[in-house]
Write a structure and sequence with these properties.
- The protein has a single domain, classed as Beta Barrel (Porin).
- The N and C termini lie close together (about 5 Å).
- The chain has no helices and ten strands.
- The model has no long low-confidence stretch (mean pLDDT about 90).
- Strand 8 and strand 9 form a beta hairpin.
- About 15% of the residues are buried.
- It is an all-beta fold and about 180 residues long.
- Helices cover about 0% and strands about 60% of the residues.
Length: about 180
């Protein structure tokens, strides 16, 4: 299951880039309730192959008020030279420390892939998530992020994105249980 403020991670790094990043999203659940998630972060690319960003995350579970949820440190590494190969390859390593200490540390990692055909860009990320030092038992999850984007002009791009969770990385959920 994707989070309401989830986004596609890209493998391409621009050396010297600095950003203040705000994300927000609302999700309507199958039972008719809604939940939301927000984050604000600061990121920088100190090397031509590394981008690092630190986030504060907030959540509003269904029927509850908004509250601080977690700290997150995201690192993306560009492993191939942009455009040199048919597919640009990167790696994501993300460490999250939830407010609820019983959740331990959440570690997300995996490859980031991008290719282009003229004005079309395609991304596919296959990420593994697990909890470390948690007092509760959590499954190791296999997540995916997909994107197809068409660059109509410099000012306008449109496309499709898909986010999902196939369940435990070595024991996938049945199709009717995934989102």
């Amino acid at each position: 299951m994707a989070e309401p403020n989830d986004y596609i991670r890209l493998p391409i790094i621009e050396f010297g880039e600095r950003e203040i990043d705000f994300k927000a999203g609302v999700q309507r659940n199958r039972d008719g309730t809604t939940q939301s998630a927000h984050s604000i972060g600061y990121g920088i690319a100190p090397r031509s192959w590394w981008f690092t960003e630190f986030y504060g995350k907030y959540a509003q579970p269904a029927g509850e008020s908004t509250r601080f949820d977690a700290w997150e440190w995201e690192n993306r590494f560009q492993l191939t030279e942009t455009g040199r190969y048919p597919v640009d390859l990167g790696l994501l390593l993300e460490i999250e420390r939830p407010r609820d200490r019983a959740e331990g540390y959440e570690l997300t990692f995996g490859p980031l892939l991008q290719t282009e055909w003229g004005n079309v860009q395609a991304n596919a990320n296959l990420l593994m998530r697990r909890h470390l030092k948690a007092t509760d038992q959590y499954d190791r999850e296999l997540l995916y992020q997909l994107q197809f984007k068409y660059r109509q002009s410099r000012e306008f791009e449109w496309g499709l994105q898909a986010f999902g969770n196939v369940g435990q990385w070595d024991n996938w959920l049945p199709a009717d249980a995934t989102r």
